[in-house]
Amino acid sequence: MAGIVDAVFLDRALGELEVVRSWSPRVVSRLEALITAGEDGDLFRVNPLTFAKERGVATEEAVDLLLHATALGLFEMDWLLVCPRCACAVKSFAHLRALKSRYRCPECHHDYEAALDDFIAVYFTVSPNVRTIRYHRPETLEPFDYLYVFRGVREGVAPDGTPFVEACRQALRGIGFLEPGETRSFAFEAAEGLVFGLSRDADAGFVIRVEGRPAAAPQRIALTWRGQDYAPDQIAIAPGPVTIDITNDTPERGIVAILQGGTADDQGFLRFEPYLTGKRLLTSQTFRSLFRSEIIGGAEGLAIRDVALLFTDIKGSTRLYQRIGDLNAFELVQQHFDRLREATRQHGGAIVKTIGDAVMAVYPDAAQAVAAALEMREAIRRFSAGQSDRAVAVKIGIHHGAAIAVTLNDQLDYFGHTVNIASRVQEMAGAGEIWLTEDVWSYPGVQKLLDGQPAQHEVARFQGIEQPMSLVCLPSPAEPA
Question: Which residue range is the domain that position 209 belongs to?
């Protein structure tokens, strides 16, 4: 049953949402239906990619919709560090600035260093200002809901294709809260193998090895929960009926889940259904526009394993300023920026910054960057058509690879070898040319985009880069007769 909705707040916010941009038909009404009729679980950590798939909305539009809804107070953004082995929501952060890349999972006891490409996920939870759901008060949740929904993510999939949450439910032999000073008993039939006890609120657990001949009589084990560990934490028993008595020897409430598992080595990475990664969000123009105050905390930045960087510049801008005057040229450059920004937005990227007459843009992958470059070149050609004295010609360079997302001068920026190469590649280009590195040329989907366009392959050496670079030039298309 849906919870109580603040209809006045919702109507006002939806009215503003309708006009912030042009939406596809009925997109906003689909979000309204989710808020008013969805179950509590549907409104906790909404995955924009799942929302798009289930409601027939384009993915990029779904992301934009939830970003705008968040900016208007309908949702709250949640940055999560996700464990790749147990789908545990290891850490939750309300803001990017608090996000850390190094973390330890309290369930599987592994250490990780996350990149923005994966294991950093972004979700949206309905704001209590518009509708209260039980996940706003996690202390009231049932044990399973708390441990596997509130403290986990739903996208994890076990090797056999079973949703990981369901696989845990099937393996569960007991679960419950441990009140201060309380002793709780869990009775079940122990099969040969391992039984794991875990507490996601702390980096603690226990392992029971079940082996040998079946027990002749019921077995009983006594454990003590001490806040950060169990005593003892390693036990051996025989297969058969067992009762585990767990005493909470702390002043705080704890929680324990007991699962019948496989082997100690059976801890490979899970597969995950698609979710909104930190990389994809940071390459969103809507995110950068709406959440300008979001910065990356710390001096080291956040790693990105693969991102596409595009640089543009205006060919002959100095002569343009001399020919038509500073004010006219400045106005012309701003109009050219508008067209580059729109092409970037249409292809899932974001303008990082403008440097004089140049642009630096970022995209989730190289194919999107190439599609944007082609659109940019055509948009500027149309813009310049019929005004030969005010014509603008752009030159474009693209490279992809690893980078570091950082905050420089109070704005999100990118740093590293990939950025330097992309900038150098752009410097090779002439008017109307798009230059790519061989890595971009061979990226999946790029050849289909180019569809037989003429291409010139060259090798160049850049100062400070030891190895020669294989480059591809897409010449300026011939003007129609």
Answer: 164-267
